[in-house]
Structure formats: structure tokens, C-alpha cells
Specification:
Blueprint lengths: L1 H8 L6 E4 L4 E3 L2 E3 L4 E4 L1 H5 L2 H4 L14 H5 L20 H18 E5 L7 E4 L1 E4 L5 E5 L1
Antiparallel strand pairs: 1-4, 2-3, 5-8, 6-7
């Protein structure tokens, strides 16, 4: 839940581009062959119609009943690693690596944010904290 909510607020990539390979209907919209689509992932992840009026708040409980419930039955609205056959090849590796790293840290330490931490996400290919994430580790 915490990892998914973090990925919703700060997806690794803010947008992606796709090319329509055959004419397709998207609702009432007809997309002709070779149309270039810009998919604004960050915008979709911050849309109050999908996520609710508290869209800018970190609420991990949003994902307590999985992605379909969090997105009001629109699972395609959560796409931090893309979606479908062109999603990120590192999805499973990244999710497993994050879970293992967090588990290993929490077995040995508790942590608090440093008092001089400044929350300032920036985009340099991916979204990342401009000044890093300063934490203080406390041995258990």
C-alpha cells in the first residue's frame, strides 16, 4: 500500500508516448493509424475525478483493497510503470527490490526525517528529490 501510494504521487516517469498501430475507437473518439499519443501519467495520478478530492495527500489506505478499488474501478488509471505489453520490464524486479530493501532496513532500524529535509521533487528524466531524502537511522 505504501509503495503504491508513493508511486502514485511520484511516478518514476511523468509521461509516456505511444503510437496508434491501427485505427481504434476510444470512447466516442476515433484514433487514426499512426497517431502519436502523449499519456500524462503524473496528471492521471493526480486527477481528483479518479482519486478523490484528497488526491494530493499521502494516504496509503487508498490501496487497502487493491488498485481497482483505489481508482474507482479504473485500474488503468494507475500506471507508474506503464500498462500492457509495453510496460516497464523492470516492474517486478523493482517492486521486489523495494520490498526487500525496506524489510531489511526496518528489521534493524527505525528512522525519522532529518530536521533539515526539504521536500522538493524535481524531474531529471525521472522524479526524484532534488536534495535527496535525509533520514536519521536509529538502531533497534
Amino acid at each position: 500500500m505504501i509503495i503504491n501510494e508513493s508511486l502514485r504521487l511520484y511516478p518514476p516517469v511523468v509521461s509516456t508516448i505511444r503510437k496508434v498501430e491501427r485505427q481504434v475507437a476510444l470512447g466516442n473518439l476515433a484514433l487514426p493509424l499512426d497517431t502519436i499519443l502523449h499519456v500524462p501519467i503524473l496528471k492521471i495520478h493526480h486527477d481528483p475525478q479518479i482519486w478523490g478530492n484528497d488526491v494530493h495527500l499521502f494516504k496509503s489506505e487508498r490501496f487497502s483493497e487493491w488498485i481497482a478499488k483505489a481508482t474507482i474501478n479504473n485500474a488503468a488509471a494507475f500506471l507508474p510503470f506503464g500498462l500492457g505489453p509495453r510496460n516497464c520490464v523492470g516492474l517486478n524486479f523493482t517492486m521486489n527490490e523495494a520490498k526487500i530493501a525496506i524489510a531489511m532496513i526496518l528489521q534493524r532500524y527505525s528512522f525519522t526525517l532529518s530536521p533539515d529535509y526539504v521536500h522538493l521533487p524535481t524531474q531529471i528524466l525521472t522524479i526524484r528529490p532534488q536534495h535527496g531524502v535525509k533520514v536519521i537511522l536509529h538502531p533497534l
